[in-house]
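Query structure, 306 tokens:
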């Protein structure tokens, strides 16, 4: 476990660096929202395109991994709905707990997979992103429509936004480049790869800058339940799904790593837009990110196989 923890240290150091720089006001308040947009629309999509376009999976069939991820996600959604009557939360709060227990931080997941497992791990994590971004966004929107009870964007409008998601578009482009044999174009390929490498450090710093410790001072019960389900419960469910589908090796490690990732800042944005409990969502982002420092390495060691 010590080796895994040491390998994850750069991830948490970079998150901590972003958190610290934001708190001391460097390089300025306007920098971090701009970095969020740059990472979301340019840098991370470039990493996804680069890893998928050049992915050499060695004949590995990604469908079992995709099925494992989807089944585990649907199982967790069912668990949250079954727990709904006993959770200490009203409708809007439940929607934030639902997002907190299921959604994952793409910034941290892609960077962690790259740092831990290199390009093969990043390629498999890109497969996870391609499968899970549309599934989780759809589930989150449906739950918000059902339980938030506030003014919200229509489901059709949310689906249109989903179809324009830069991660999904980048995954589709990278897969198309790979399957057609085109790969990264020689002229712009090095540029895309350089942008992708930059996304690892800058994306993690952006995640750290988004942490809000003050938001975690209230609502400890829903925060603890949702964060515990995300960081411990979801990896356990994922391990069961992986056993059913028979995945092992690197694919299993990536699946467990994906399940153990903290809640993304986008959960707060969606809660704010669609009538959910936005302060609770922000608190869950912070609590799960801090908790992941302690839980990711044990989950990988205990559930990720040799």
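Result returned for the query:
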């Amino acid at each position: 476990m010590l080796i895994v923890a040491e390998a994850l240290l750069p991830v948490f150091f970079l998150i901590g660096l972003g958190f610290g720089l934001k708190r001391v006001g460097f390089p300025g308040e306007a920098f971090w929202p701009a970095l969020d947009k740059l990472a979301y629309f340019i840098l991370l999509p470039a990493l996804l395109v680069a890893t998928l376009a050049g992915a050499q999976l060695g004949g590995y069939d990604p469908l079992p991994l995709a099925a494992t991820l989807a089944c585990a996600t649907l199982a967790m959604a069912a668990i949250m709905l079954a727990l709904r009557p006993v959770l200490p939360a009203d409708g809007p709060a439940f929607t934030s707990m639902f997002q907190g227990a299921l959604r994952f931080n793409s910034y941290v997941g892609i960077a962690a997979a790259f740092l831990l497992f290199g390009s093969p791990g990043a390629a498999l994590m890109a497969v996870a992103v391609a499968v899970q971004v549309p599934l989780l966004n759809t589930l989150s929107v449906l739950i918000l429509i059902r339980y938030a009870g506030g003014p919200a964007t229509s489901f059709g409008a949310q689906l249109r936004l989903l179809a324009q998601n830069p991660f999904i578009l980048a995954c589709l482009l990278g897969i198309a480049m790979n399957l057609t044999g085109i790969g990264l174009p020689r002229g712009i390929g090095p540029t895309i790869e350089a942008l992708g490498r930059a996304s690892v450090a800058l994306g993690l710093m952006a995640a750290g800058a988004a942490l809000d410790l003050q938001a975690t001072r209230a609502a400890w019960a829903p925060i603890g339940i949702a964060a515990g389900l995300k960081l411990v419960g979801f990896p356990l469910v994922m391990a069961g799904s992986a056993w059913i589908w028979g995945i092992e090796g690197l694919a299993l490690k990536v699946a467990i790593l994906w399940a153990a990732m903290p809640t993304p800042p986008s959960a707060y944005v969606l809660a704010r837009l669609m009538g959910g409990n936005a302060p609770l969502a922000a608190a869950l982002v912070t609590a799960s990110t801090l908790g992941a420092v302690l839980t990711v390495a044990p989950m990988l060691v205990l559930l990720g196989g040799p």
